[in-house]
Amino acid sequence: MLVIGVGNRLRGDDAAGPIVAERLAEMGIAAIERDGDGTRLLETMEGADEIVIVDAMRSGAAPGTIRRIDAVREPVPAGAFHYSSHAFGVAEAIETARAIGILPARLVLYGIEGARFDFGAPVDAAVAEAIAGVVSEIVGRD
Amino acid sequence: MSRVETRNPDRDAPGRVIKVDALARVEGEGALYVRVRDDLIEDVKFRIFEPPRFFEALLRGRPYSDAPDITARICGICPIAYMLGASRAMEDALGVVLDAPLEDLRQLIYCGEWIESHVLHAAMLHAPDFLGMPDAFAFAKANPDAVKAALRLKKLGNTILEAVGGRAVHPVNLAVGGFYRAPKKHELQALLPEIEFGIEASATLAKAFAGFDFPDFDYDYTCVSMRSDKAYAIEEGRLVSNRGLDIPVAAFPDHFFEEHVAHSNALHGRMRDGSPYLVGPIARYNNNAGQLSPAARDLAREIGLGATVTNPFKSILVRMVETFHACEESLRIVAGYEEPERARMPIEPRAGKGSGVTEAPRGICWHSYELDDEGRIVGATIVPPTSQNQPQIEADLACVIARNLDLDDEALKWRCEQTIRNYDPCISCATHFLDLTVDRV
Q: Could you read off the pLDDT of B375-404 as tens digits, one per residue?
């Protein structure tokens, strides 16, 4: 299993993915950070058996809401994850991987609803709690 | 993601407004506002609200040698444009001339950047426009093999950046005066099979894209690009236009200026007479197509490009011709590569002024610096391509809208988005999402 934490540490709650990856890596779990460049995610997904992606979400839900999507069984709603620095983001990468037949056998996406995405903003308290929640759940899987 | 909303801004006059809160498939955040009264366009504003980042101010007081690595952070797609523009300017100020093999390595890493940037835009972001597809993955579903080839081709670009620059995003091996370490011959030789693939794949993609239905639109552009006596200019040359301009790099401010406009956080670049101008793939092609490799010229002819291109929607084809050329150029450099005697020229810091320009994937990117006795930066000016193209994007939009007023709001919005994507605008460089508002009063 490889965990990919997607986001930008400098933009408030967009740091959620990278923080999850950092904590898991400290525990000895294979975890890396990535920005929102979908084509690089595709390269990482190709040939992998099991991937877990964690990304901040802006879907309109309450900050700190955790959404778990089994991306092998269901499509990823593009709108919730468009907050990446580039327009070809996580949702596009996963759906492109499905379309060209390189989707890993197991692919789970955790979305953590953010409150603020401004430059330099602190991580919201509810988001910090959700980060801890996602970390425990992934550790539980491993 | 694009959201569309129709409202009436003025209760006294019947009319309509089209508003798109986020233009997809562009780099950065921006907005478009259009007001139409009695079928006449009163106002077109392309707004960039990506916050300014004040790079020029934070460079002040730093040593000249920091400029490439700091300015690289302006963009994650085209860091080489900033690193080499800054390096050229510093070398101009410090009287440094690079050994020929180091120039070749710079050309090679720049080819890598053109390949990854052009292919990302053309195949993943722009091509879906011509098939009426809202998402990149809809295009992937219909054309899985083309998308697989495009991804592999883009990866070649990144691999070239890694081999020469140490890593793909914000490379760490480029310095004023050359490189911290010259790549080993076997490291570059290892790229050859993928470069051979790249030559074939870029031609195949170019021919596939040539079958698209391009909107009927032409514009008599003032095309501004670099020109070199040696080759299709990428990272070395003077500045020229298709209207007879031919100036040294340092003379840029005498002929062009940037102005702050109330509606955008990015400066707008104009000619001194106030007119807009075009930079980027079409400008380069129109000025320098004769210097493309013979096979690249053949490819351009085969996919229907004439001596000059006046339809901005065909920029996708020019990007693929340039990608093909960049693959051929990479092959030439890698095949002839011998490890240089020294990776970096010796530099003595001194006071001075210097300017440098390179052809970023989106067009010329001009840098100018002033240094004190110890080589610290006293003043910095950086003019990125998207700032320069902004007035031209607005001019294109005005023409496109005027011709398409019969379209309904949704279709007109779509055509405006396409018009903007022709430019592969890097909004984050110029100062992320785009709002589109069309007011029909």
A: 999 999 999 998 899 899 989 998 998 888
Q: Are B363 and B349 in contact (CB under 8 A)?
A: no
Q: Which ipTM value was assigned to this complex?
A: 0.80
Give the pLDDT mean for B251-262.
91
Residue range B347-367: mean pLDDT, rounded: 97
**Cβ atoms of A80 and A57 closer than 8 Å:** yes
- The distance of B144 to chain A (nearest Cα, Å) reads 5
Q: Chain A contacts of B77, Cβ < 8 Å? A: 86
- Chain B: residue nearest A82 by CA? B1
Q: Do A99 and B76 touch (CB under 8 A)?
A: no
Domain with CATH 1.10.645.10 in chain B: 65-221+261-387
Q: How near does any CA of chain B get to the CA of A111, in Å?
A: 17
Choosing among 3.60.20.10, 3.40.47.10, 1.10.645.10, 3.40.50.2300, the CATH entry for B65-221+261-387 is 1.10.645.10
By CA distance, what is A75's nearest residue in B? B137
Q: In angstroms, rounded to a whole number, what is the distance separating the alpha carbons of residues A108 and A74?
A: 10
* Beta strands B352-360 and B363-371, pairing class: antiparallel
Of A43, A79, A96, the CB nearest to B147: A96
Query: Does residue A109 have a pLDDT over 70?
Result: yes
Above 80 in pLDDT, residue A85?
A: no
Return all residues near B176 (Cβ < 8 A) that are at least 6 apart. Answer: B64, B65, B67, B68, B86, B87, B90, B91, B94, B96, B347
Structure-token match 């083309």, residue found: B146
What's the rounded Cα separation, in Å, for the pair B171 and B162? Answer: 7
Domains recognised in chain A with CATH numbers: 2-141 (3.40.50.1450)
Kindly identify which residue of chain B lies nearest to residue A88, measuring between CA atoms: B25
Q: Which pTM was predicted?
A: 0.88
Q: Please indicate whether residue B9 or residue B322 has the higher confidence score (pLDDT).
A: B322
Residue B33, CA distances (Å) to B24, B26, B44, B66, B153 in order: 16, 17, 6, 39, 36
Q: Residues with Cβ < 8 Å from B317, sequence gap 6 or more? A: B206, B209, B210, B300, B303, B304, B305, B309
What is the arithmetic mean of pLDDT over A32-46?
85
Q: B169 to chain A: which residues are within 8 Å by CB?
A: 35, 37
Helix (H), strand (E) at residue B154: helix B144-165
Confidence of residue B25 (pLDDT cuts 50, 70, 90): very low
Collapse the DSSP code of A42 into the 3-class scheme (helix H, G, I; strand E, B; otherwise coil) and give the result. helix
Nearest to A119 among B24, B25, B51 (CB): B51
